[in-house]
Amino acid sequence: MLRPRIIVCLDVQDGRVVKGTNFRGLRDVGDPVELARRYEAEGADEIVFLDISASHEGRGTLLETVRRTAEVLFIPLTVGGGVRTADDMHALLRAGADKVSVNSGAVRDPSVLTRGAERFGSQCVVASIDAAWTEDGAAGPGWYHHTHGGRRPTELEAVAWARECVERGAGEILLTSIDRDGVRTGYDLELTRAVAEAVSVPVIASGGAGSAEHLRDGFREGKAAAVLLAGILHDGLTTVRALKSALAGWDVPVRPAPAEVGT
Amino acid sequence: MSTGSSDTPHVALFDYGAGNLHSLAKGLEAGGGRVTITTDWDEALGLDALVLPGVGSFGAASQALAGHEARVREALAGGYPALGICLGMQLLLSESEEGEGGGVGLVPGRVRRLRARTVPQMGWNDVVARDMGDPVSGSLDGESVYYANSFVCEPDDPGVVTATSTVEGDTFAAALRTARSWGVQFHPEKSSTPGLALLRRFLHEVAS
Fold it and tell me: pTM to 2 decimals?
């Protein structure tokens, strides 16, 4: 039985994990290698690094961070942020990423998804979609894809865009609700289900997780294959282990967390 | 011909030129091996064992293999130890629905697309051992391991399959064995503790 996944997302800038506070300013919360390992030990099924470095130097540092992480992390690692070409993907994969997520780069040139899938296999290619409900969208009211960290709207309706990404080679969709991001009132289940039912590849629900119930609903009602978490873990509100144990109690067949070491 | 001591098996990790080899190299080292990444079939067949990694597309990997199928098949059939992972496992077979070109043909059979609504299969799935006595895959029974695949192996002789997994009702070969060659459809280097243990057991077999 294929198990519903819990994926932990770390925002990485210049080789450090950072966290936004009150919509402005970033706080250093630790070393990506150490945090990724800690989440593996807690039972995380995958790790995502989202690079938010703006500078060229920052991107060089990212490759080094990925290299150091891949040496000690033995669960899948997805890396995203600033990927524009198949060569960018190649550099990240060679450094030790298992999958690469593409957002703005695919809007600029959707063929990057196809080239990536042909060279590396579609299982390496994750299309990242940041969707917000838009009353006056180009094709009427609906969820529309945004680029540049969710700040720049596009005319791409999210469900149609997800379909196109899959046709072009994406093997997975990372779907973030901008409306729910950071709000902790639960995933946007309608959005998640609409995309999951429209595509043949796994969909990762992201944005809005505040509790184990939200994860359960993301799987059951949102039809997500995986859920992405960040804030509630980094703030210490809960742990992957506690979430998995709650989910197992509701018969959500998550992979059990490994036995605790040293207790 | 062995260049390593008997305690430290020296394995050739073949590089098709695409994808992440880094974690697998580190996983093999953690399991007690010495690793040389190579694109040269002479070297790949001249150490203690061959590892065919599971990254890249079938077409690209098949291209790297083109012209060398027969010698790889003969070396493996003759007992040179090998571990094929995911795509690397599929390369042990003769033909694939996925792309142009063929595999080594060590295991007669074909590579077919998963019969599931959601493809690729992406995530942790449970293993059921068919041959509990297999030294590499036998102790995986009941473990969850990480898959990222759209295609699976269908050997002509079901007897080579040592373990299975099931996705959406489609039961497929999680692991197979012929001579001293093993294939696993999942990624041991991404399967945390049970995966690393499998790499260690393979290296132990190579050394014994």
Answer: 0.95
